[in-house]
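Aim 2 progress update. The chain analyzed this quarter is reproduced below.
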Amino acid sequence: MKSFDIMVIGSGSGLEISAEASDRGLSVAIVEEGPFGGTCLNRGCIPSKMLIHCADVMETIQRADLFGIKASVESIDWGFIIGRAVDEVDKDATAIERGNRQAPNITVFKGRGRFVGMKTLEVNRERISAETVVIAAGTRPWAPDIPGLSDVLYITSDQALRLPEQPKRLAILGGGYIAAEMAHFFGALGTEVTLIHRGPTMLRAEDEDVARRFTGVYQRRFNLLLNAQVSRTYRQGDEIALEVSVGGHTMKVATDAFLLATGRAPNTDQLAVAETGVEVDGRGFVKTDQFLETGVARVWALGDIVGRYLLKHSANLEAAYAANNIFNPDNKAPVDYRAMPHAIFASPQVGSVGLTEREAMETGIPYVTATYDYYDTAYGSSIEDRDGFVKVLARPDTGVILGSHIVGADASVLIQEVANAMRLGLTADAITQAIYVHPALPEVVQRAFGELQFP
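Predicted structure tokens:
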């Protein structure tokens, strides 16, 4: 059995720790089953946004008549669209793996690892151990138990980002950010999309005002079935048939492809983390303390497998803290998650940071709130965004910003200034008293804060 100073399981954000360990002259084992770079590079944010940008371009063309421009699309080169993303991603993944294989003090084990004892992993029938272990093996798409599902060729977001042919019809099960983004990508490029969601609105994790507005837009764009569940799936010739229960009635949805966007499951079961004494919560995510150390000394975890935030920028933040806490044990620091923003790259976009109004109410935190519509600003009206708005929350006594939620054009960009202000502990005055470029779109954020009524 080979022994190392440190073992990193997963080649996403955990590579920050393996790189520092290598620089310190420690022997490092990196265990990775798939391509290097983690979920974000290979199956998540990078390829999906490259594809979604194509949808954004198409939508711009489709809306051109609003601005007196007559435009049409001659054709769509699906192979080029997919190939452009795949080639870029695969090239980067190969480069990352090559760099790690060539790095001093690092040994790469390519295969699925499984714990077989305390800090002991078996990979490709070879056992390795380490004094320090970092579990950063991420999550995978989760499939619900639907009768007949195993008999149809359903896809998840993993396959959707690499489909060799564009489906004419696509049914998507789910109402979260993956469903929203994939519907936009396929729908804007001409696929007939049916969304099937068990809830009354999409994006249930978002502020309710945002969720309602977003749902309204998607009801205009797609065939959106709410309060619906798929009760059975089966093959019918060349198509997939879904029996969908909606409001006490059952209807049939015929589709060429069926995409499951029903959440993600941590890879702790595949790793058999219990064999090394690591505890998981009721959903299977690794339990850690505030420093990211598990209940087993010198076994750490970070990223999606921890389940705090399933976001790449959160995993990067955790990796920085984990590196500090591993290599500077006398100066450990708890992870500071304050003002963790997120965005949904659909159409419209969504950006969010801090408390939703419901969360503020449920926690008893006093707040004042205000909204401002994009269309009531010069730039918002110039781009004909009639759905977008900014919502803000702040404490009435101090003016400290509690949260902001944006739906509309460039929401992923606009939310950043609020996240920065919150991270620094600033008050609403920091935004209302700033000088904004006129008539740029960020004015809508300042206007929203200006609408807050303090006692």
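The longest strand covers residues 126-135. The chain has a mean pLDDT of 97. These observations will guide the mutagenesis experiments scheduled for the next reporting period.
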